């Protein structure tokens, strides 16, 4: 057996493991295999075309067909109808996150000790209002709609009288399955995988991006998990706030004068490995499917 085949088999095995929690999410939300397969076809063609272009090679349907295993007819259809397919779009998640970030870092919206001020919801105020904050950094979202979004996720609270709003959190985390939550999930998973891909492509470890995992060598007792998670959450909140403060000290890119901007950041998450179901599919089905005998 060749080394190339062994490596391919390892990659497919790793991809199976990687896809397991993702497929669980898809099934839970009514996404079928055929729907996912359509998306994967598009992604295979898109990545193959762009990777070939970046490598300086002429990109043709034949080359894409060889690398993806798809027919030239299938690829031609994908290329022709690309403009009709659904594309990623900005949702209220990125806009709300930006509003909270500026509220905690822009001196116009902060008090004398570096804490975000309570802001008048709207109306004239030379010191800055929530309406001004949203108009400058919330895209096209109306002021009251943005306020409703932040209040709904517990990031802000309208004070008595309804004319002033107080920020409660510096991060935007939806509490239910919404387009915003899907966007945050997608960005988190993709950014981590992109970091791993970047690091695997480099031989010089000094040039690799930060990627660290810390865990108790022997694990913890089940009764200690909740306390440990609370302790880590409280500690990392202070670390996140400090990182956010450090990033705010850099001058922001001036896009109006042609300065480019690089999107970057630091992600943190708490993981817990769940016991893997070792049963075969046949064992899971048991006698529930009489057609199993046809296999």
Could you walk me through the main structural features you see in this protein, from its secondary elements to its overall organization?
This protein is mainly alpha-helical. Among the domains are: 89-209, no CATH class; 212-295, no CATH class. Helices cover 50% and strands 3% of the residues. The protein has ten helices and three strands, in the order H-H-H-H-H-E-H-H-E-E-H-H-H. Strands 1-3-2 form a three-stranded antiparallel sheet. Strand 2 and strand 3 form a beta hairpin. Helix 2 crosses helix 3 (61-68). It is globular and about 70 Å long. The model has no long low-confidence stretch (mean pLDDT 83).
Q: Any low-confidence stretches, pLDDT <50, length ≥5?
A: none
Q: Which oligomerization state do the chains in this entry correspond to?
A: single chain
Strand order of the largest sheet: 1-3-2
User: What order do the SSEs take from the amino end to the carboxyl end, as H and E?
Assistant: HHHHHEHHEEHHH
**What is the first-to-last residue Cα distance?**
29 Å
Helix content: 40-55%
Radius of gyration: 24 Å
Structural class: mainly alpha
Number of helical elements: 10
Strand fraction equals under 5%
The geometry reads as: globular
- How many strands, which pairing sense, and closed or not: the largest β-sheet? 3 strands, antiparallel
Number of strands: 3
Averaged pLDDT: 83
């Amino acid at each position: 057996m060749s080394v190339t085949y062994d490596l391919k088999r390892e990659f497919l095995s790793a991809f199976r493991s990687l896809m397991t929690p993702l497929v669980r999410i898809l099934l839970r939300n009514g996404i079928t295999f055929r729907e996912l397969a359509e998306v994967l076809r598009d992604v295979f063609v898109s990545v193959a075309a762009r990777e070939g272009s970046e490598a300086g090679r002429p990109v043709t349907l034949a080359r894409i067909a060889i690398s993806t295993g798809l027919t030239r007819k299938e690829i031609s259809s994908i290329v022709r109808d690309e403009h009709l397919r659904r594309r990623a779009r900005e949702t209220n998640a990125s806009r709300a996150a930006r509003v909270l970030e500026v509220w905690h870092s822009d001196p116009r919206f902060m008090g004398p000790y570096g804490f975000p001020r309570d802001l008048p919801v709207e109306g004239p105020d030379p010191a800055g209002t929530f309406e001004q904050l949203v108009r400058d950094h919330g895209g096209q979202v109306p002021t009251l709609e943005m306020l409703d979004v932040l209040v709904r996720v517990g990031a802000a609270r309208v004070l008595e009288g309804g004319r002033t709003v107080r920020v409660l959190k510096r991060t935007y985390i939806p509490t239910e399955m919404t387009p915003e939550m899907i966007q945050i999930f997608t960005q988190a998973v993709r950014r981590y995988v992109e970091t791993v891909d970047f690091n695997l492509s480099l031989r010089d470890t000094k040039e690799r991006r930060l990627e660290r995992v810390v865990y108790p060598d022997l694990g913890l007792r089940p009764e200690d998990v909740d306390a440990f998670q609370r302790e880590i959450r409280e500690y990392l909140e202070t670390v996140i706030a400090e990182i956010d403060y450090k990033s705010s000290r850099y001058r922001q890119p001036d896009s109006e004068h042609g300065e480019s901007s690089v999107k970057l950041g630091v992600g943190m998450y708490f993981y817990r490995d769940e016991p893997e179901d070792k049963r075969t599919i046949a064992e899971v089905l048991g006698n529930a499917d009489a057609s199993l005998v046809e296999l």
